[in-house]
Amino acid sequence: MIERLDTNKLLKKFELSEFPEPEVIQLKHPILLCHGYGAIASLVKPSPLYDIALLLRSHNVLTYAPNIVPYAKIETRAQSWKRLIEELVESIPGGKVNIVAHSMGGLDIRYALSNLDIARHVASLTTISTPHRGTSLAELTLKTPEAIREKLADFLDWMGDRIYPHTKSDSVGSAAQLTRTYINEVFNPQTPNVDDIPYYSYTSAVGKGTSQPIRVIARYQNRHIFEEEGPNDGMVSVQSATWGEHIKTSNLSHLEQMNMRVKNDREIHFQSFWVEVAKMLEMKGH
């Protein structure tokens, strides 16, 4: 037994790094994380993107992950982000933030930039798996039999109103705005990019059509979106999430991007992805 023990390999685990602290990332402006549709993550952590904020703060990046209404139309959510941004920049030297928006949050910020005069406070917008061209998953959800859809909507609105009572939830109205028809025929034509604001995007692909794993519970929707739109992260396709300067396609599912349902061997992928996002902003001079 002793003869078979690889002592060099064992002791390698205890080898000390000369600089064990997290790598320092230096940005000109803080990061504001804007979450998307839904309230599941908010039931188990202070905000959906809270873990990311703590991770980036450990790398010297001042990062905020506030909450807004989980289920509401883009216009309503955008107004909430505008208010929070205006409050935040009052205490920030330079008066600007780098916005990194996940999922529907990217649509909220695009709307706010185009229609709510927040551009002077924004150094850059980076979207993560945002359905810039809609998602067939929203269409599938809205095709649920009416009786079931109404009960589900009542539950989601009830839950949304209790975890965020400041704004009335509207789960069905907001889901309808995520359909491909609405986004491509209404939202995008009315929401052009704002000059002088850099738009970056990250996409993700797991499950069907890739070698990357996806949880069993998400395989049906993953296959559905693949058949309709191609490779996807279980909620948003690569094609839909591409906007502005496309930086990278990651191998994290939509929930893993928020540090939800991440297995131990996948934790390193979650951490490295978000550190890469911050380092990209550093490289771009933001």
At a glance:
By secondary structure, this protein is of the alpha/beta class. It is 41% helix and 11% strand. Strands 2-1-3-4-5-6 form a six-stranded parallel sheet, with helices on both faces.
Could you characterize what this model shows?
Helix content is 41%, strand content 11%. It is built from eleven helices and six strands. The protein has helices spanning 7-12, 50-57, 74-89, 104-115, 136-142, 146-163, 171-176, 180-190, 219-229, 238-241, 267-283, and strands spanning 31-34, 63-64, 97-102, 122-128, 199-204, 245-250.
Key phrases:
single chain; 286 residues; alpha/beta; Rossmann fold; six-stranded parallel β-sheet; 11 helices; 6 strands
Q: Count the E strands.
A: 6
What structural category characterises the helix and strand content? alpha/beta
User: How many separate helices?
Assistant: 11
In spatial order, strands of the major sheet run 2-1-3-4-5-6
Layout of SSEs?
Blueprint: H1 7-12, E1 31-34, H2 50-57, E2 63-64, H3 74-89, E3 97-102, H4 104-115, E4 122-128, H5 136-142, H6 146-163, H7 171-176, H8 180-190, E5 199-204, H9 219-229, H10 238-241, E6 245-250, H11 267-283
Parallel strand pairs: 1-2, 1-3, 3-4, 4-5, 5-6
Helix pairs in contact: 3-4
